[in-house]
Design brief:
Blueprint (H helix, E strand, L loop, with lengths): L7 H8 L1 H23 L4 H27 L9 H17 L10 H30 L3 H23 L2 H5 L4 H22 L13 H9 L2 H30 L8 H26 L1 H14 L1
Helix pairs in contact: 1-6, 1-8, 2-6, 2-8, 2-10, 3-5, 4-5, 4-8, 11-12
């Protein structure tokens, strides 16, 4: 396990996949509902139905994709082929989300279809890219180095995905912005693939899918993590998605200025990345997490 022949350039290149992940994640979470409801005029209730259907399908499909990936056998490995053949459809679907090519009467169905294609491609690529990390980097030193670069690329992707769109779509339009970002996503996935040096190892035989799912759900540590992660993701879904509507209709500021308002998120958050990193080094992850919970809920 691991690949001792990796150069620093390969490690940095592999890490850049986080840029594409967070650019797409944050841009979709923050602006997709606003785009279809406020700019295209789709009824909010219909978009809500589409998002619920999309979430139900995801819950069923995602574990299956992971199961299939773990058992894939090719001469190029089990992860790289999914990234190689999935990054172009993913970039294209992400771009076309913002360039609807159907009449207004069919926008709901277009949204339902394109969000499904996007998410299927996103999970296929991102899941396999993420799975490469422990398989490529067995040593703690390598993992720490790559993790740092993943965080750097992720922060850049977050900033572009949250803060820059209002400034861009008010000047060059949604379609041109989508083409630019879609090109960036494809470029960084291609660069990341350059650094993805998977060592082929035949996958170990595991339990059947349903038994594996049952064992997973019986794992108390996993269930506790899943519940906590669900609550975190719930907040991350509600706040960014509401932000464009809040700034436009409550604060009554021009849409172009929304970039500066959303940019303050990072001005506040980035220093605390360093602070909490120090806390984790001093007290460990569990105690730091416990202190954070006490501060958030009991102060």
């Amino acid at each position: 396990m691991g690949n001792p022949g990796l150069k620093t350039s390969h490690k940095i290149a592999y890490s850049s996949g986080n840029f594409s992940i967070y650019l797409m994640q944050q841009m979709v979470a923050t602006f997709i509902v606003f785009f279809y409801v406020d700019h295209l005029g789709v009824r909010p209730g219909l978009i809500s139905i589409a998002m619920v259907m999309h979430g139900v399908v995801n819950a069923a499909v995602h574990p299956l994709l992971g199961y299939v990936s773990d058992r894939t056998k090719t001469r190029w490995g089990r992860r790289v082929p999914y990234i190689l053949f999935g990054m172009v459809p993913l970039s294209a679907a992400f771009t076309m989300m913002w360039i609807p090519v159907v009449p207004e009467a069919y926008l709901f169905w277009y949204f339902l279809g394109i969000i499904a294609v996007f998410d299927l491609a996103f999970v296929t690529v991102a899941l396999n890219w993420t799975s490469l990390f422990p398989e490529m980097f067995a040593k703690l030193k390598d993992r720490s180095f790559v993790s740092s670069w993943r965080q750097i690329w992720g922060i850049i992707g977050r900033i572009l995905g949250i803060a820059s769109p209002p400034l861009l779509y008010t000047t060059i339009g949604w379609g041109n912005m989508a083409v630019i970002f879609g090109g960036l996503v494809l470029f960084f996935w291609s660069w990341s693939l350059y650094g993805a040096k998977e060592s082929y190892e035949p996958p170990k035989e595991g339990p059947p899918f349903l038994k594996a799912l049952k064992l997973t759900l019986m794992n108390k540590a996993f269930v506790a993590f899943a519940i906590g992660n669900f609550l975190v993701q719930l907040v991350f879904a509600i706040l960014p998605g509401a932000a464009p509507f809040f700034t436009k209709y409550v604060l009554l500021v021009p849409e172009s200025q929304t970039s500066f308002i959303l940019g303050t998120i990072f001005v506040v958050a980035l220093p605390f990345v360093y602070v909490w990193g120090k806390f984790i080094n001093m007290w460990g992850r569990e105690q730091s997490h416990s202190l954070l919970q006490q501060h958030c809920f009991f102060r």
